[in-house]
Amino acid sequence: MHDLLLSNLFFYLGHVAATGEILNIKDAYKHPLFYKGMDEATGFKTRNILCFPIRDEDSIVGVAQLCNKIGGHFDYFDEQVANAFSIYCGISIMHSLVYKKIQDAQARSRLSNELMMYHMQVRTHTLFNNNCLLGRRFAETSIQHLQEIWFY
Fold this sequence. Notes:
Layout: H1 2-19, E1 23-25, H2 37-42, E2 49-55, E3 60-67, H3 76-120, H4 124-127, E4 128-129, E5 132-133, E6 136-137, H5 143-149
């Protein structure tokens, strides 16, 4: 089944992805880009197809298809509706990709903040070494003063 899906991709779907043009197939079995082996494998009967690209600002990010219009063939109006729909699809895909990038950036930021906070912690045993506080004698500094300065 997986091979059939890949084979089908390189026919009319691949054609639309490569050209960026809407493909309106009135009779699927008579069209040279249609692969009827998919129908045979799935038991589905494809009569007609409207296949259209989904774009972002610069390129094609996907391809969508409509199959078997009820009551006839896909017409010019259907192509215009599909084109409008594809714009919304492209916007939605781009928004979801941007949202994912934002989530990833926030996760990296949280992780780096946690790492920085961990490594910035000053532990009591590092403050007091031979009764010295960072090069100063302990007698010069009170414990209360230390608690006000260092957060740990």
